[in-house]
Amino acid sequence: MPVQGRGTSQSSGTTPSVFRLSQAQARRLQLSAQGLLGSDRRRARRGDVLAAIERMRLLQIDTIHVVARSPYLVLYSRLGGYEPDWLDEALAEGRLAECWAHEACFVPAVDYPLHRAWSGQRAGHWSYRSAQREHRERRREMDALLEQVRAAGSARAADFAREERAASGWWSWKPEKRWLEAWFALGELMVARRERFQRIYAPAESVLARLDPPFDPALAALGADALRQRFVLDSVRALGVCMARWIADYYRLKPAVDERELAPLLASGELIEVAVDGWPAPGYVHRDHRSTLEQAVAGRLRATRTTLLSPFDPLVWDRARLRAMFGFDYAIECYTPAPKRQYGYYVLPILHRGELVGRLDAKAHRREGVFEVKSLHLEEGVRPTPRLWAEVAAAIAAASRWHATPKIRLARCRPADAAATLRAHWRAVAGTAG
Fold it and tell me: Helix-strand-coil percent breakdown of the chain, rounded to 5?
């Protein structure tokens, strides 16, 4: 039930009120907004890929491939056993576009004009600064490459021979790759499609011409204030419920969002204020989630999904938000030197019925058909039950099948005696334990 407070009701002339949520109710509301609350009994369809990205508003791209690359895994956590090619098809058909948003992301085509208009506000982002510096220093070569791509219609980095091998590392790109990326950041080139996850660059005008829905110049003409407000509202909608301090990170907005900036959105009814037990500041919910908010307050939202999450999932990428929402302290350790890692290289949080109950370090050995669980840790304070182990085992087995690595190999486990329980579940299902 709403309680008296500082929020604004959704119908004018009524008494201001604030909904009060427990922390568990707030978690379920966020999971619902992110598409992670319950399990869908029907099989995923092609359109579900775009619907999931529209719900999140963006899908971060990362190329690490020890299990499925992150964008495919984020979708798997929500859709179950879908076909990864559906993501590639949506990009090639113009229903998605690539741009810099949170980081490099897929975004719905309908939102792309907003991101293109906002690109001028990202002058401080490393990608834009690097692109400008590269163009200043190598203008002749970059301009020649752009003309070459325009003449050919498209290009891959692989189309350009590399005469000598540079030192290994993320940024040991050959010059042409750097220049293609620079023109992408500057907006002259876009990603037309991907082949084996490699970008196919094309002149922006040719990609814009086939976006579905068509590119809306009115959205691209919005001013900075209107764009920022749009991204603030979309962030709150994607997160379900959040404090003001968490909003800016979703689209990397600067400066940070504060309660004063949100006050007009409360007054207009675009946002609803909520009080969450234990939160030191108000929470905010988008008006599109009002009915879900009412269900949460009434205790009618049930969390039933158990799945593995990508390290780059929107649910977990903000460490402060994750700690406050789920009491889960998580860092992406693939960028940490091996001796300093606590849990492993590519650690997947385990979501179980509304809680983050553990994490596992995984690797898919595709040639051998083996899904290796290098380590699995339950969180301190989690009381394992037979249902928890059964559903975690089922989630790991389902992920292994989707990866086309049906044999599961388990190394370390905490608590240690859980290893036998997990292996027993896998043997009972399909003889996949190792």
Answer: 45, 20, 35
Q: Which residues contact 332 (CB under 8 A, 6 or more apart)?
A: 311, 312, 347
Amino acid, res. 330 = Y
DSSP code per residue over 227-279: HHHHHHHHHHHHHSSEEGGGHHHHHT-SS---HHHHHHHHHTTSEEEEEETT-
**CB-CB contact of 7 with 266 (8 Å):** yes
| 252-to-87, 120, 239, 269 alpha-carbon distances in Å | 24, 13, 14, 24
Tokens of 257: 């969002």
pTM for this entry: 0.93
What are the beta bridge partners of residue 363?
A: 372
DSSP-assigned beta bridge partners for residue 375 = 361, 412
Half-sphere exposure of 59 (CA within 13 A, CB side): 29
How confident is the model over 215-269, as pLDDT tens digits?
A: 999 999 999 999 999 999 999 999 999 999 999 999 999 999 999 999 999 999 9
Tokens of 48: 């579900």
